[in-house]
């Protein structure tokens, strides 16, 4: 009896295990999803089913493909042309661009709704975020987002140029560009800059230093012509790791051809237009102790009145004070960076003009205090001169002014000028 009970017990345990195993098989079969479709019960059924799921999902996904540039996470991005959104197999429905601080950046979707770009120039060293939405032909939406940072001032350079866009200047005005970083890749930078004239004159660049590049033709600009400066420096590497950011076109007009010839020996100045003398003015140039530079000088600035202090240009007395300090010099026009001016003079005797050279190096014209007398010699010349006019100073007995002292590159002959080109 004891043995039989043990046998029944084993039998019941065996049935229980068999049931569990069978249940496990049934559960596995049910989880496999095979059923009648997959009598083999292998992995082939899983792949087929998943493909159908993927196919169904794909049918619900937009075909529109959005591309944002620069790519997400970029740094040193251009402030001019880097930011853009384009779409294929669809049209753009919405694009927003903001700084990391949340300031909105205006932009415009193209007429065909295939592209978008900002309306203006971006800021340097600024993080931006772009979010774009597009729809395909079935109206299904696609979305794309990107963030990038524009080039920093430390890793970029700009060129400050003269003359200004839209200005009218004299025939001697060069295009002068002063870079805020030293340029070592001069050839690449110069190739990114073009200067042309409606006169057809050949225009060549000359490097005065790693920071200054001037352009001029062989002879003075033709009167009444138009000059165009194009700065295509965006992305140009000016030095190791330092890139240009400017993409700009500047145009300016050349006025009438006026060149004034100062003769320190005869103490006169002949004002010529198109080679013809229109007025002769008595002058007083630098004294024998303080001779005026010789050479072709270009008027770079005009001041109805300005202060002139000898201490700023090295003329001091024993106490270190300026030998002169005149706070209201009338009708002053700059000829050099080192302090050479042609200006009105009301404090000297009228008799010196045309008879004796008495200045500290400037060219003086008879004038009246207050700079309101347009009939005085100084007032007339000021009213009839523009920035870029040439003042050609001769017979002073001094050296020729350095070509980079002001806008005075005309004092280099053409061969020497072209030798300074890197292009």
TrEMBL record:
One family name in Pfam for this protein: YkuD
Biological-process GO terms, alphabetical: cell wall organization; peptidoglycan-protein cross-linking; regulation of cell shape
GO molecular function: acyltransferase activity; peptidoglycan L,D-transpeptidase activity
The keyword Transferase is assigned to this record: yes
Disordered: region residues: 32-63
GO cellular component terms given for this protein: extracellular region
Signal peptide: 1-30
Gene3D superfamilies listed in its UniProt record: 2.60.40.3710, 2.60.40.3780, L,D-transpeptidase catalytic domain-like
Transmembrane feature ranges: none
Biased composition (Basic and acidic residues): 52-62
UniProt xrefs under CDD domains: LDT_IgD_like_2, YkuD_like
L,D-TPase catalytic domain span: 258-394
Keywords noted in UniProt: Acyltransferase, Cell membrane, Cell shape, Cell wall biogenesis/degradation, Lipoprotein, Membrane, Palmitate, Peptidoglycan synthesis, Signal, Transferase
Catalytic residues as annotated in Swiss-Prot or TrEMBL: 343 (proton donor/acceptor), 362 (nucleophile)
Pathway assigned in UniProt: Glycan biosynthesis; Cell wall biogenesis; peptidoglycan biosynthesis
Name of this protein: L,D-TPase catalytic domain-containing protein
């Amino acid at each position: 009896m004891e043995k039989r009970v043990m046998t029944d017990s084993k039998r019941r345990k065996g049935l229980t295990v068999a049931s569990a195993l069978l249940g496990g098989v049934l559960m596995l079969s049910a989880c496999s999803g095979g059923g009648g479709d997959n009598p083999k019960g292998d992995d082939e059924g899983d792949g087929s089913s998943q493909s159908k799921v993927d196919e169904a999902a794909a049918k619900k996904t937009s075909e529109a493909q959005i591309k944002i540039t620069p790519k997400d996470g970029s740094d040193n991005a251009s402030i001019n042309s880097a930011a853009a959104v384009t779409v294929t197999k669809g049209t753009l429905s919405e694009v927003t661009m903001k700084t990391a601080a949340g300031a909105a950046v205006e932009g415009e979707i193209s007429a065909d709704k295939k592209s978008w770009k900002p309306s203006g120039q971006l800021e340097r060293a600024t993080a931006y975020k772009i979010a774009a939405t597009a729809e395909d032909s079935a109206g299904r939406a696609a979305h794309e987002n990107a963030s990038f940072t524009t080039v920093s001032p430390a890793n970029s350079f700009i060129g400050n140029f003269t003359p200004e866009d839209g200005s009218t200047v004299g025939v001697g005005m060069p295009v002068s560009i002063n870079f805020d970083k030293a340029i070592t890749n001069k050839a690449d930078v110069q190739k990114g800059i073009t200067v042309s004239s409606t006169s057809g004159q050949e225009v060549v660049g000359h490097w005065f230093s790693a920071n200054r590049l001037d352009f001029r033709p062989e002879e003075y600009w033709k009167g009444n012509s138009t000059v165009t400066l194009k700065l295509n420096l965006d992305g140009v590497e000016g030095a190791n790791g330092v890139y240009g950011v400017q993409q700009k076109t500047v145009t300016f007009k050349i006025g009438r051809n006026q060149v004034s010839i100062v003769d320190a020996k005869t103490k006169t100045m002949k004002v010529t237009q198109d080679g013809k003398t229109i007025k002769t003015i008595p002058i007083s140039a630098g004294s024998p102790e303080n001779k005026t530079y010789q050479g072709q000088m270009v008027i770079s600035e005009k001041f109805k009145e300005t202060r002139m202090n000898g201490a700023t240009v090295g003329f001091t007395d024993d106490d270190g004070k300026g030998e002169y300090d005149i706070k209201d010099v009338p009708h002053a026009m700059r000829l050099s960076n080192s302090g050479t001016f042609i200006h009105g003079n009301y404090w000297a005797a009228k008799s010196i003009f045309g008879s004796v050279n008495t200045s500290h190096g400037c060219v003086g014209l008879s004038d009246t205090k207050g700079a309101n007398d347009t009939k005085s010699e100084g007032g007339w010349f000021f009213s009839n001169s523009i920035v870029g006019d040439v003042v050609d100073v001769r017979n002073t007995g001094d050296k020729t002014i350095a070509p980079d002292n002001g806008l005075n590159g005309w004092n280099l002959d053409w061969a020497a000028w072209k030798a300074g080109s890197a292009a």
